[in-house]
Design brief:
Shape: globular
Number of domains: 1
CATH topology: MetI-like fold
Structural class: mainly alpha
Number of helices: 11
CATH architecture: Orthogonal Bundle
Helix content: over 70%
Order of helices and strands: HHHHHHHHHHH
CATH superfamily: MetI-like
Oligomer: single chain
Amino acid sequence: MRHSIYLKKYIYSILTIILLFVIWQVIASIKDVELIYPSLGTIFKRISETLSTWDSASAILLTFVKVLISVLICLIISFIITFLYYLIPSSTYIIRPIVTIMKVAPFAAIAVYLFLAISSTAAPYILTSFVVLPIMIESFISGVDNLNKEIDDDLKTLDISKFRKFFVGIVPILFPTIIMSLLSSFGLGFKTMIMGEYICSTNHSIGGYIYDYKSSTSYDYILAWVVILVFLIGLIDLLIRFMGKKIKNK
Protein backbone atom coordinates (compact mmCIF):
# COMPACT_ATOMS: atom_id res chain seq x y z
CA MET A 1 0.00 0.00 0.00
CA ARG A 2 2.75 2.41 1.01
CA HIS A 3 4.78 1.58 -2.13
CA SER A 4 1.78 2.26 -4.37
CA ILE A 5 1.31 5.69 -2.72
CA TYR A 6 4.99 6.53 -3.29
CA LEU A 7 4.72 5.32 -6.89
CA LYS A 8 1.70 7.57 -7.48
CA LYS A 9 3.59 10.55 -6.03
CA TYR A 10 6.54 9.95 -8.37
CA ILE A 11 4.26 9.49 -11.38
CA TYR A 12 2.36 12.70 -10.61
CA SER A 13 5.64 14.55 -10.08
CA ILE A 14 7.01 13.38 -13.43
CA LEU A 15 3.74 14.24 -15.20
CA THR A 16 3.79 17.72 -13.62
CA ILE A 17 7.35 18.30 -14.86
CA ILE A 18 6.40 17.15 -18.35
CA LEU A 19 3.34 19.44 -18.28
CA LEU A 20 5.52 22.43 -17.31
CA PHE A 21 7.89 21.67 -20.19
CA VAL A 22 4.95 21.44 -22.59
CA ILE A 23 3.54 24.76 -21.34
CA TRP A 24 6.94 26.42 -21.79
CA GLN A 25 7.26 25.06 -25.32
CA VAL A 26 3.78 26.35 -26.18
CA ILE A 27 4.66 29.81 -24.79
CA ALA A 28 7.97 29.81 -26.70
CA SER A 29 6.16 28.89 -29.93
CA ILE A 30 3.51 31.60 -29.46
CA LYS A 31 5.97 34.34 -28.53
CA ASP A 32 8.45 33.26 -31.21
CA VAL A 33 11.27 35.32 -29.64
CA GLU A 34 14.19 32.90 -29.29
CA LEU A 35 16.32 35.38 -27.35
CA ILE A 36 13.87 35.67 -24.41
CA TYR A 37 11.76 32.51 -24.89
CA PRO A 38 14.19 29.83 -26.12
CA SER A 39 12.74 26.49 -27.15
CA LEU A 40 13.16 23.35 -25.07
CA GLY A 41 15.64 22.05 -27.64
CA THR A 42 17.82 25.13 -27.15
CA ILE A 43 17.57 24.94 -23.35
CA PHE A 44 18.57 21.27 -23.22
CA LYS A 45 21.42 21.96 -25.64
CA ARG A 46 22.67 24.71 -23.30
CA ILE A 47 22.32 22.33 -20.33
CA SER A 48 24.50 19.81 -22.14
CA GLU A 49 27.06 22.50 -22.99
CA THR A 50 27.08 23.81 -19.41
CA LEU A 51 27.52 20.43 -17.73
CA SER A 52 30.19 19.32 -20.21
CA THR A 53 32.61 22.09 -19.18
CA TRP A 54 34.94 21.79 -16.19
CA ASP A 55 34.36 25.44 -15.25
CA SER A 56 30.65 24.85 -14.65
CA ALA A 57 31.18 21.52 -12.86
CA SER A 58 33.85 23.03 -10.61
CA ALA A 59 31.58 26.05 -9.90
CA ILE A 60 28.83 23.67 -8.71
CA LEU A 61 31.32 21.72 -6.58
CA LEU A 62 32.79 24.94 -5.16
CA THR A 63 29.34 26.25 -4.21
CA PHE A 64 28.60 22.96 -2.41
CA VAL A 65 31.89 23.25 -0.50
CA LYS A 66 31.19 26.90 0.41
CA VAL A 67 27.72 25.99 1.71
CA LEU A 68 29.20 23.10 3.72
CA ILE A 69 31.79 25.42 5.29
CA SER A 70 29.12 28.02 6.12
CA VAL A 71 26.81 25.42 7.68
CA LEU A 72 29.61 23.90 9.77
CA ILE A 73 30.66 27.34 11.04
CA CYS A 74 27.02 28.08 11.93
CA LEU A 75 26.82 24.71 13.70
CA ILE A 76 29.82 25.56 15.89
CA ILE A 77 28.45 29.03 16.70
CA SER A 78 25.02 27.53 17.46
CA PHE A 79 26.56 25.03 19.88
CA ILE A 80 28.42 27.83 21.68
CA ILE A 81 25.30 30.02 21.94
CA THR A 82 23.10 27.10 23.03
CA PHE A 83 25.67 26.13 25.68
CA LEU A 84 25.67 29.75 26.89
CA TYR A 85 21.86 29.59 27.08
CA TYR A 86 22.10 26.32 29.04
CA LEU A 87 24.53 27.92 31.49
CA ILE A 88 22.68 31.23 31.77
CA PRO A 89 18.98 30.93 30.73
CA SER A 90 18.51 34.70 31.07
CA SER A 91 20.95 35.15 28.14
CA THR A 92 17.92 34.53 25.93
CA TYR A 93 17.05 38.22 26.40
CA ILE A 94 20.22 39.02 24.45
CA ILE A 95 20.18 36.08 22.03
CA ARG A 96 16.59 36.35 20.77
CA PRO A 97 16.73 40.04 19.69
CA ILE A 98 19.91 39.32 17.72
CA VAL A 99 18.29 36.29 16.08
CA THR A 100 15.19 38.34 15.24
CA ILE A 101 17.28 41.10 13.65
CA MET A 102 19.12 38.51 11.53
CA LYS A 103 15.79 37.06 10.39
CA VAL A 104 14.09 40.33 9.44
CA ALA A 105 17.12 42.19 8.02
CA PRO A 106 16.64 42.87 4.26
CA PHE A 107 18.76 40.33 2.42
CA ALA A 108 19.41 42.40 -0.73
CA ALA A 109 20.48 45.52 1.21
CA ILE A 110 22.90 43.51 3.36
CA ALA A 111 24.28 41.78 0.26
CA VAL A 112 24.99 45.09 -1.48
CA TYR A 113 26.59 46.53 1.67
CA LEU A 114 28.82 43.48 2.20
CA PHE A 115 29.78 43.53 -1.48
CA LEU A 116 30.98 47.13 -1.04
CA ALA A 117 32.41 46.74 2.48
CA ILE A 118 34.40 43.50 2.14
CA SER A 119 34.68 41.41 -1.03
CA SER A 120 32.51 39.50 -3.48
CA THR A 121 34.22 36.28 -2.36
CA ALA A 122 33.60 36.57 1.40
CA ALA A 123 30.15 38.22 1.25
CA PRO A 124 28.16 35.09 0.21
CA TYR A 125 29.53 33.19 3.25
CA ILE A 126 28.25 35.89 5.61
CA LEU A 127 24.91 36.15 3.79
CA THR A 128 24.39 32.40 4.03
CA SER A 129 25.23 32.50 7.73
CA PHE A 130 22.69 35.30 8.23
CA VAL A 131 19.97 32.96 6.97
CA VAL A 132 21.15 29.63 8.39
CA LEU A 133 22.36 30.69 11.86
CA PRO A 134 18.99 31.93 13.25
CA ILE A 135 17.29 28.68 12.19
CA MET A 136 19.93 26.56 13.92
CA ILE A 137 19.99 28.64 17.11
CA GLU A 138 16.19 28.62 17.47
CA SER A 139 16.06 24.89 16.76
CA PHE A 140 18.75 24.02 19.33
CA ILE A 141 17.38 26.32 22.04
CA SER A 142 13.89 24.96 21.45
CA GLY A 143 15.32 21.44 21.83
CA VAL A 144 16.87 22.39 25.19
CA ASP A 145 13.59 23.97 26.35
CA ASN A 146 11.63 20.85 25.41
CA LEU A 147 13.90 18.41 27.25
CA ASN A 148 12.09 15.86 29.35
CA LYS A 149 11.99 17.19 32.95
CA GLU A 150 13.02 13.79 34.35
CA ILE A 151 16.12 13.74 32.15
CA ASP A 152 16.95 17.29 33.20
CA ASP A 153 16.56 16.36 36.88
CA ASP A 154 18.77 13.28 36.42
CA LEU A 155 21.50 15.40 34.82
CA LYS A 156 21.39 17.82 37.75
CA THR A 157 22.16 14.96 40.17
CA LEU A 158 25.37 14.06 38.33
CA ASP A 159 28.56 15.39 39.92
CA ILE A 160 30.15 16.58 36.69
CA SER A 161 30.77 19.96 35.11
CA LYS A 162 28.01 21.68 33.17
CA PHE A 163 30.22 21.45 30.09
CA ARG A 164 30.15 17.64 30.25
CA LYS A 165 26.44 17.60 31.15
CA PHE A 166 25.70 19.59 28.02
CA PHE A 167 27.94 17.84 25.49
CA VAL A 168 27.74 14.31 26.95
CA GLY A 169 24.18 14.35 28.30
CA ILE A 170 22.11 16.85 26.30
CA VAL A 171 23.71 16.92 22.84
CA PRO A 172 23.15 13.15 22.22
CA ILE A 173 19.47 13.60 23.13
CA LEU A 174 19.23 16.50 20.69
CA PHE A 175 21.00 14.53 17.94
CA PRO A 176 17.87 14.02 15.73
CA THR A 177 17.10 17.75 16.01
CA ILE A 178 20.70 18.62 15.13
CA ILE A 179 20.74 16.34 12.07
CA MET A 180 17.42 17.65 10.76
CA SER A 181 18.57 21.23 11.32
CA LEU A 182 21.81 20.52 9.43
CA LEU A 183 20.00 18.96 6.48
CA SER A 184 17.37 21.68 6.15
CA SER A 185 20.03 24.37 6.64
CA PHE A 186 22.12 22.91 3.82
CA GLY A 187 19.18 23.02 1.40
CA LEU A 188 18.29 26.58 2.33
CA GLY A 189 21.94 27.59 2.50
CA PHE A 190 22.56 26.32 -1.03
CA LYS A 191 19.84 28.58 -2.44
CA THR A 192 20.99 31.51 -0.31
CA MET A 193 24.62 31.06 -1.37
CA ILE A 194 23.65 31.20 -5.07
CA MET A 195 21.60 34.35 -4.48
CA GLY A 196 24.53 35.91 -2.60
CA GLU A 197 26.93 34.99 -5.41
CA TYR A 198 24.57 36.54 -7.94
CA ILE A 199 24.10 39.83 -6.06
CA CYS A 200 27.84 40.08 -5.37
CA SER A 201 28.75 38.79 -8.88
CA THR A 202 31.29 36.41 -7.35
CA ASN A 203 33.83 35.08 -9.84
CA HIS A 204 33.78 31.40 -10.78
CA SER A 205 30.50 30.62 -9.03
CA ILE A 206 26.99 29.57 -10.04
CA GLY A 207 25.57 32.98 -9.12
CA GLY A 208 28.45 34.68 -10.90
CA TYR A 209 27.78 32.78 -14.11
CA ILE A 210 24.08 33.66 -13.96
CA TYR A 211 24.99 37.32 -13.44
CA ASP A 212 27.36 37.25 -16.45
CA TYR A 213 24.70 35.62 -18.65
CA LYS A 214 22.16 38.24 -17.55
CA SER A 215 24.59 41.02 -18.46
CA SER A 216 25.16 39.51 -21.90
CA THR A 217 21.41 38.76 -22.39
CA SER A 218 22.15 35.03 -22.76
CA TYR A 219 18.76 34.01 -21.40
CA ASP A 220 18.99 30.49 -22.80
CA TYR A 221 21.99 29.81 -20.54
CA ILE A 222 20.15 31.36 -17.57
CA LEU A 223 17.23 29.00 -18.11
CA ALA A 224 19.66 26.11 -18.49
CA TRP A 225 21.09 26.95 -15.06
CA VAL A 226 17.54 27.24 -13.68
CA VAL A 227 16.78 23.66 -14.79
CA ILE A 228 20.11 22.40 -13.42
CA LEU A 229 19.56 24.12 -10.06
CA VAL A 230 15.97 22.93 -9.76
CA PHE A 231 17.24 19.40 -10.30
CA LEU A 232 20.08 19.78 -7.76
CA ILE A 233 17.92 21.47 -5.11
CA GLY A 234 15.20 18.88 -5.72
CA LEU A 235 17.73 16.13 -4.99
CA ILE A 236 18.77 17.92 -1.79
CA ASP A 237 15.12 18.22 -0.68
CA LEU A 238 14.55 14.52 -1.40
CA LEU A 239 17.61 13.66 0.67
CA ILE A 240 16.32 15.82 3.53
CA ARG A 241 12.93 14.09 3.47
CA PHE A 242 14.53 10.63 3.26
CA MET A 243 16.90 11.33 6.15
CA GLY A 244 14.05 12.92 8.14
CA LYS A 245 11.93 9.76 7.81
CA LYS A 246 14.88 7.58 8.81
CA ILE A 247 15.50 9.69 11.92
CA LYS A 248 11.80 9.69 12.90
CA ASN A 249 11.60 5.91 12.49
CA LYS A 250 14.50 5.51 14.90
